[in-house]
Amino acid sequence: MPQRDGLDAVRWSVPREAPESRPALESLLERFPALADPQAKPLGERFACGEIVGADGRPWAAADSVGPGAELWFHRQLRAEDVPEIDLSILHRDEHLLVLDKPHDMATMPRGAHVLSSALVRLRRATGIETLVPLHRLDRRTAGVLAFGIRPQERSAYQQLFARSEVAKVYEARVVPAPECVLALQEGEEAILRDHLVKLRGELTARVLAGEPNAVTDLTVLEVAGDGTALLRLRPRTGRTHQLRLQLSSRGAPILGEDLYPAPRAAPAMPLQLLARTLSFTDPFSGAQRRFVSRQHPASMTRARST
Predict the structure, then answer these.
(1) Please, which residues have CB within 8 angstroms of residue 18's CB and are 6 or more apart in sequence?
(2) Mean pLDDT, to the nearest integer, of 30-53?
(3) Given 3-state DSSP classes, what are the helix, strand and coil percentages for the chain, each rounded to the nearest 5?
């Protein structure tokens, strides 16, 4: 099925262990209970309108029998969503890559309440590139360099660079030290943060647990401001979920604007002052050295919100 509003259709293949034959409507509802939401168009009507199709594009009827291996394709129905008008700052675009300077509070991928407002959907609609796919992810609240692949046949090679930690990432964060801060926040100080982080499926936050370190970050203090906040350069050697946010907060130096891993005092109502500053790697196809740099800055973003 073609994309709709920058979104791919949902493809569901009936699993091998499923019963030999069941009505299509019954099978689909069992797999996707949300399709029965009272606010959504009744699934029976969607079948009757030909909105549920097979791999060959022919519509399924609600009563048709489907068994293991059968494919059902359909477009998700979207809830009303506020999509603010935001200029997308594209740092680089060629036939292989598109690199976005992502603003704060924009999801990378469509999920939950952030679908049409996600970076992927916005870029697909703005550029018309239907094959666009993110090569890595940034948290919704994190700003900065975010790379997308354009050619499907090249996607795996680029994504493997991230999987093998062959991409150099540099972040900047402005932190507000609490009284119990254990970091030496003096200009020029350096440290290596080592932790064992665990995030369980279904849980929003990660935790620091005892164990062999699986999260390592190099830290340098760039400056200390008169208000007591400090600007840090962070070079993560690993890529655990919320790694930078949790490593700093657990040491008493949460990032300004932090809301998931707060210090004892309440987090200020502002964008999370975490920026993916640079992304560098050797291109797997051309061998060229790629380096992309964000034009944003945590300090300027803080001032913009306070004015």
Answers:
(1) 27, 67, 68
(2) 93
(3) 20, 30, 55
